[in-house]
Amino acid sequence: MHANSRPISSTQTDIHENLEKLVAKHATSEFLKPVAACNAAAFDVSIAAWRRMGESPMILDAGCGTGLSTLHLATQFPDHFVIGVDQSADRLDRNVAWSGAWPVNFIKVRADLVDFWRLMHQARICPDRHYLLYPNPWPKKHHVARRWHGHAVFPTIVALGGHFECRSNWRIYIDECAAALSQLTAIEIESEQYLPNITNEHQSHVGETTVHLIPITPFESKYLASGHTLWRCRTNLMR
Q1: Residue 210's pLDDT band (boundaries 50, 70, 90)?
Q2: CA–CA separation, 135 vs 62, rounded Å?
Q3: What is the mean pLDDT of the chain?
Q4: Per-residue pLDDT for 177 more than 60?
Q5: Which of 167, 190, 225, 228 could in theory staple to 3 by disulfide, Cβ–Cβ 3.0 to 4.6 A?
Q6: What is the mean predicted confidence (pLDDT) over 67-91?
Q7: CB-CB neighbours of 90 under 10 Å
Q8: CA quadruple 94, 90, 122, 18: dihedral positive or negative?
Q9: Are 235 and 187 in contact (CB under 8 A)?
Q10: How many CB atoms lie within 10 A of CB 33?
Q11: 170: closest CA among 187, 147, 142, 152?
Q12: Residue 158 DSSP code
């Protein structure tokens, strides 16, 4: 993995001043965008696969990209079924470097997350764990409504419940996500620095100590190799 990722640059230096109003508006408004047939079909395929596996606790890997994170999560949680969702056919079709046998407790599907989340909520199917790993940060200040916590679908994400975790290499994104989660749940949620689990698959020098880290997504690997600080927020959401 090339260490050539630039730090995120933005004129925004703190949580967006309009975020609270935006989240409040979305919490009290009905999101009426029609669900596309292709997304409904992808949802049906993924849920059918989950049911064939006995409806074990579900993990949603939202925006899974190539699906490397989906594989890691399926391996880390063998008693769960992992659904990886991404809207890009190109990313989903890329070869993933993986040593050993592939886990069987996962599926990757191409779908728009906005529809997929709403279909899950309509079907009253809730993930046990829900990961949003390195989403597009939309760093331009006027694009705050394009960030997931500023999007009209965010209250639906929260309503799905489960253990929720979002990671980014831009602290403001995580600060905003934590603030939006706290606003909707009344749970005090804060950002925290994050390092992947220690293993022998990836080397990183921390001070004078050499530790071995395993990043679970290509972005996580690239950001680590580029010396970026990683951030996350996480909480257990009520259902």
Answers
A1: very low
A2: 9
A3: 91
A4: yes
A5: 225
A6: 95
A7: 9
A8: positive
A9: yes
A10: 11
A11: 147
A12: H
Residue in the structure block whose two tokens are 């899950």: 120
Q: List the structure tokens of 97.
A: 């470097």
> What are 166's strand-pairing partners?
132, 233
Per the listing, tokens 């190109």 go with 90
Spatial neighbors of 119 by CB under 8 A, at least 6 apart, are 35, 39, 40, 43
Q: Is the confidence at residue 182, as pLDDT, over 50?
A: yes
Instruction: Give me the half-sphere count of Cα atoms (radius 13 Å) on the Cβ side of residue 231.
Output: 17
Q: Of all helices (H) and strands (E), which one includes residue 225?
A: helix 218-225
Q: What is the pLDDT of residues 8-32, one digit of tens each?
A: 999 999 999 999 999 999 999 999 9
Range list of β-strands (E), 126-237: 129-133, 162-168, 192-194, 198-206, 209-213, 230-237
Could you give the CA distance from residue 137 to residue 150 in angstroms, rounded to a whole number?
Answer: 11
The values of phi and psi at residue 196, to 5°, are: -60, 170
Closest among 101, 183, 185 to 150, alpha carbons compared: 183
Tokens of 129: 């764990």
